[in-house]
Automatic annotation (TrEMBL):
Residues 1-52 form the Sleeping Beauty transposase HTH domain. GO terms for molecular function: DNA binding. Residues 71-140 form the Transposase Tc1-like domain. Residues 149-300 form the Tc1-like transposase DDE domain. This is Paired domain-containing protein.
Amino acid sequence: MGKTKELSQDLRVRIVDLHKAGMGYKKISKVLDVKVTTIGAIIRKFKEYNMTINRPRPGAPKKISPRGVAMMLRTVRNRPATTRQELANDLKAAGTTVCKETIGNTLRNNGFTSCSARKVPLLKGAHVEARLKYANDHLKDEPSYWEKVLWSDETKIELFGLNSTRHVWRKKNAVYDPKNTVPTVKHGGGSIMFWGCFSAKGTGLLHRITGKMDGAMYRTILRDNLLPSARDLKMGRGWVFQHDNDPKHTAKATKDWLKKNHIKVMEWPSQSPDLNPIENLWRELKVRVAKRQPTNLRDLERICKEEWAKIPPGVCAKLVVNYNKRLTAVLANKSFATKY
């Protein structure tokens, strides 16, 4: 618990004067808006020592001077990956010797917390500029525009993916009880690549990708899954297709196929998974699949397709309705990666 704020000398004198005038503790508390317990402590102090001044409070002096603290804070703001040992070395060079624990406590007291750095896509200058342009171009678009977008992407789902991080309640001596363990195999037990799409109206088809996908396979996927999904979701006229800038997606043959089928494609900034709401849907799918604990790849494919179809349209609609928040976050973070 931190130290309480001390009352001013003038206020202490007023408390004593009111007490001398015959006023009770509760009445003084009400008049001066000070706790009754504080009133009592000040008056007892006056009676015992005939004094109202603040007495020195106990406590060891700070090991790091205010100037040293300012130097530390400036360093971690400019270089967040600086270690406690490096900060200790900097302070030692300036004439102050402290341990790493003191460094950590000082940083925590100033609002800093040691965390694992988030992994995000590498953004070069061209990527940053493209993200900025995309956010500015679409910031004022109405929700009705985003409702006409059919989002797509590929993802890999491992057989024992999210299960490997399951938490259990157990007693200290029950670490290896089978009920408290998660069976694992090398390389995640295998995985499946999927292509999927969705809109504000719900999820489209989920297609298993067999083997290495090339441009011809991608166009076959679009023919057999994109067009039927657009019809099933009743996208109507003027809908827009979103996919990223993977070379298979931007190949001339793919562009020609999209043009031949009169599909309008959204201009997309590279290295921007945080701008594609299907990433949130992939996470939703993986959580749902992990709960059903598939035991082989055939089960995994079946469960993935079942759970993908079960995702409520309301979840999809919420991701799309709130899309402008992503654009605002991109602009607020100067086009760098966001929490999405």
